[in-house]
Amino acid sequence: MIEPSHPPAQVPTRDSAIRLEGVRVRFDEHEVLKGVDLEVKKGEFIAIIGPSGGGKSTLLRVIAGLQKAQGSVSVVGQPAMVFQDYRLLPWRTVEGNIRLPIELTGRGKVETYLGMRKVKHLYPHQLSGGMKARVAIARALAQDAEVLLMDEPFAALDALVRERFNLELKSLHARTGKTIVFVTHSIREAVYLADRVVVLKDGRIDTVLDTSGEGRLTAFTDGLEALLRERLGIADSTLVEPPPQPLRPPWEVFGVLGLAGLLLLSWTWLSARIPLFFPSPWAVWQAAVQNAPQLAHGALATLEVAALGVLCALLVGTPIGYLMGRSRTVERLLSPFIVALQAIPTVIVAPLLVIWFGFSLEAKLITTTLISIFPVMVSTMVGVREVDRIYREVFQTIGASPWGVFTKLEVPGALPVVLGGLRLTVSLALIGAVVADFTFQGEGLGAFANTERLSFRYASAFAAVGVNVALGIALYGLVTLLEYWVLRYRRR
Ligand SMILES: Nc1ncnc2c1ncn2[C@@H]1O[C@H](COP(=O)(O)OP(=O)(O)OP(=O)(O)O)[C@@H](O)[C@H]1O
């Protein structure tokens, strides 16, 4: 759960949106804010400028509730925030990102798409810097908060685009009447946009200048600059849709086929040297055709146990992995047992299971789950831990509930790593199903291969192994397809 970082804000006076009194922030020995007093009126546009490291971002984070501080902080409602690095969720489209606050809180509305409606189906990696800025601002506006905090949102944009954004932001402020606190390094931008410019130096407010009325459009429309702008054109480069990516030729497929051919040749060569115990590919193929009904029956039985094993591994492994990912204490508590469990040789334990549970499905599932659960737990733990803190802060500024954070951040954020682990899990579950079959005299491929081996019919035993390998490849392919679909936002 995301904890609020400073005590609940007091309600500011009637016409003030933000009131800071004696705000101090210290990181170890370094006092970054040394007693900041500031009152921002409702509807006011404040720009904060100052030298690098002067505490501008820290002050904004204090107002947003992301940074603990001493002193008194009062804000009307939870402010919306536009971060310098935009922090768009990579698995959501433009529209999905803009609508996030509405989905999480059930409040707010899409105020504006800021010209991004035509590309609302694109994912963040398909956008230019300017387009990302538009989406980040539109998302903050959709939150419909009284206060909008902007931390150098245009820093990464080129000068022309930046000026266009300045114009748009100014008219947006006039239209919405929001209270805006805007951090920038550009004096010109600050003077053009803000009603008051605050100079923050060495953790203290150095100067507050009334600049209302200074933001004349003439600065952009008069003189040589205006002439150059006219020559360059006023087309907005931030709205250009990126060109479609060309399809890659399927070289990988040829590579795989070539390698498979090489393996087959080596197999033929080897089997000619050990003919009695190492059947040739052709002999295995003939045995497979002769035993097709038994092999099909065995494959289905093995598949059933493997699939149920994967299901059990997911049902038991993901909650444990999630708890370990969220809490270092839980991880420290459980990891010795999990590592010990992984080190238990299942082939030795499995015969004991026969004594405890008999030749039952439960015993088979326990064996399969024991063999395949480890990657599920570890990948879920790593996946949950890898969900970047920067995205958690976005959810915190939106005021998301723990359930919202779980469903819209942790699950999609951890999914790429969990799916990577699932590839390993399905292969291990198949091995588990064969081991279980071997031990519990089932009807699957393991039992068939064992019977054939004991009767010296090596070709049919190899055929069973071959079918199991084919099943492994098919299951792996299925997970890869699922991954391809789930991670479609990453495709370029
Ligand atoms: N979480 C943190 N832990 C330790 N020190 C921090 C932390 N966050 C910020 N600082 C330090 O606090 C100081 C002020 O940082 P801050 O980002 O607020 O400055 P800034 O004025 O926004 O700088 P810039 O203009 O370069 O973005 C810096 O010296 C920075 O190293």
From TrEMBL:
Subcellular location: Cell membrane; Membrane
Stored SUPFAM superfamilies: MetI-like, P-loop containing nucleoside triphosphate hydrolases
Sequence ranges assigned to domain ABC transporter in this UniProt record: 18-227
A Gene Ontology biological process term: transmembrane transport
Membrane-crossing residue ranges in chain numbering: 305-325, 337-359, 365-384, 414-436, 456-487
Protein's UniProt keywords contain 4Fe-4S: no
Primary localization: membrane
Keyword ATP-binding: yes
Highest taxon, organism lineage: Bacteria
InterPro entries for this protein: AAA+_ATPase, ABC_transporter-like_ATP-bd, ABC_transporter-like_CS, ABC_transporter_ATP-bind, MetI-like, MetI-like_sf, P-loop_NTPase
Keywords on record: ATP-binding, Cell membrane, Membrane, Nucleotide-binding, Transmembrane, Transmembrane helix, Transport
GO function terms (MF aspect): ATP binding; ATP hydrolysis activity
Domain ABC transmembrane type-1 as annotated: residue spans: 299-480
Family: Belongs to the binding-protein-dependent transport system permease family.
Name assigned to this protein: ABC transporter related protein
Organism of this sequence: Allomeiothermus silvanus (strain ATCC 700542 / DSM 9946 / NBRC 106475 / NCIMB 13440 / VI-R2)
